[in-house]
Amino acid sequence: MPVDLIIRDAFKSDYDSVFSLICNELGYAGLDFDKFNERMDRFSVDSSMTTMVADYEGCIVGFIGVQIERAYTLENSAILIMALAVKSEFQGKGVGSRLLEWLDDFANRNQISLIAVSSNLRRLDAHAFYESRGFSKTSYKFKKQLSL
User: Fold this and answer.
1) Which CATH architecture has domain 5-132?
2) pLDDT in tens, 54-112
3) Which of 24, 23, 47 is CA-nearest to residue 33?
């Protein structure tokens, strides 16, 4: 694991790096950069959203985006991991684990009792990563695309 890795809040100047991680590591190459920046600006003022980056010697090598949610079945809030990505050359070096450690600490500090994540069926390495860190498969996720 890179010793000098810092987990910190994402700044507007980090949007390019986060966009690159989403496109290159998560496979969303068709994203519109300007619309992405608009979303990030909205997220930055939404108290339910948090975006953290993994900064290694001034280079963003990973990020995690989370949303705090309420659930009908929980007394406390839950956190949904909206996205987690690490640059390919840093995968397997502990960056993703450090991002999840930050999330565990954040959840504990805020008395949040559940962390959830959805992962595409084809992302078998991601499934193994999450399972090795205490997550378990509990459900299927269904989507319906609407035309607006």
Assistant:
1) 3-Layer(aba) Sandwich (3.40)
2) 999 999 999 999 999 998 888 889 999 999 999 999 999 999 999 999 999 999 999 99
3) 23
